[in-house]
């Protein structure tokens, strides 16, 4: 069982919208097959502080909930709100890795719909999505707009900290040199990726950190949903030929 307890601070001007969205959010979450209990209620002392208490069958059910809620109107509305959560019982098992990789794949699809190389990334800590992004250098006229960088930027802004220790980055394709550098600067603890990038991959294909004197290193889990992630790439490039 995975449990989460804590508080969420709602900005005054968002209070009414939050109250409305919360009714739907509670109903949808309680209807999830893996949800054991889900309660959110305003504090008696401060109506802008909401208490959150939830329990899910396992890490997979919890990750499924995170993925659904994050993409829902509730997730959109509350993504910038300050939260202090404690989770317990969370085992980042292979199935949880796959769940977050599925989320990254959905983001990769946003990229290919926009004519960009299909890469998606999600940054997670304690089972919570901190930031997400998809590749968009062409539309953004920004050579640094890789999925990983966008996810890191979003998480750093949200948590008001340029360092993100203890976090795991899920990305559909092996990160490039620039992104490996950014992951080191951000102190990301673990990188999970799908398919290898034989040309530009800088983690295993062309390991760039071996001779780099940084003290920080991240753990690497390659090949999670690797075949599906790789197919997204080959399908995209085949369609352009
Ligand atoms: Zn990159």
Question: Topology, pairings included?
Answer:
Elements: E1 2-9, H1 15-30, E2 35-42, E3 49-56, H2 59-71, H3 73-78, E4 82-88, H4 94-113, E5 120-125, E6 128-134, H5 147-158, E7 168-173, H6 177-185, E8 190-195, E9 219-221, H7 226-240
Parallel strand pairs: 7-8, 8-9
Antiparallel strand pairs: 1-3, 1-4, 2-3, 5-6, 5-7
The protein binds zinc ion.
Q: Which labels suit this protein?
A:
five-stranded mixed sheet; alpha+beta; binds zinc ion; single chain; 241 residues
Q: In angstroms, what separates the terminal alpha carbons?
A: 48 Å
Number of E-state strands: 9
Order of secondary-structure elements: EHEEHHEHEEHEHEEH
Shape: globular
Give the % helix. Answer: 25-40%
Chemical compounds bound to the protein? zinc ion
Walk me through the structure.
This protein is α+β, with helices and mostly antiparallel strands. α2 (59-71) packs parallel to α4 (94-113). It has helices at 15-30, 59-71, 73-78, 94-113, 147-158, 177-185, 226-240, and strands spanning 2-9, 35-42, 49-56, 82-88, 120-125, 128-134, 168-173, 190-195, 219-221. It contains seven helices and nine strands; from the N terminus they run βαββααβαββαβαββα. Helices cover 38% and strands 24% of the residues. The strands form two sheets. A five-stranded mixed sheet has the order 6-5-7-8-9. The chain has a four-stranded antiparallel sheet with strand order 2-3-1-4, covered by helices on one side. The structure holds zinc ion.
């Amino acid at each position: 069982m995975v449990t989460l307890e804590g508080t969420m601070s709602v900005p005054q001007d968002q209070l009414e919208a939050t109250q409305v969205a919360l009714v739907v959010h509670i109903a949808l979450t309680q209807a999830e097959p893996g949800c054991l209990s889900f309660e959110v209620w305003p504090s008696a002392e401060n109506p802008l502080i909401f208490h959150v208490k939830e329990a899910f069958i396992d890490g997979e059910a919890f990750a499924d909930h995170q993925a659904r809620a994050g993409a829902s109107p509730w997730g959109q509305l509350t993504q910038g709100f300050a939260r202090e959560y404690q989770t317990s019982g969370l085992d980042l098992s292979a199935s949880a890795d796959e769940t977050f990789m599925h989320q990254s794949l959905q983001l990769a699809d946003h990229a290919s719909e926009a004519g960009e190389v299909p890469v998606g990334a999600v940054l997670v800590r304690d089972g919570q999505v901190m930031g997400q992004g998809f590749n968009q250098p062409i539309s953004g006229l920004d050579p640094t707009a890789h999925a990983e960088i966008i996810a890191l930027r979003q998480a750093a802004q949200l948590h008001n900290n340029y360092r993100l220790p203890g976090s795991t980055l899920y990305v559909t394709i092996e990160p490039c040199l620039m992104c490996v550098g950014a992951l080191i600067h951000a102190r990301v603890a673990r990188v999970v990726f799908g398919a290898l990038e034989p040309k530009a991959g800088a983690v295993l294909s062309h390991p760039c950190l071996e001779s780099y004197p940084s003290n920080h290193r991240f753990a690497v889990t390659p090949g999670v949903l690797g075949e599906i992630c790789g197919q997204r790439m080959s399908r995209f490039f085949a369609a352009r030929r």
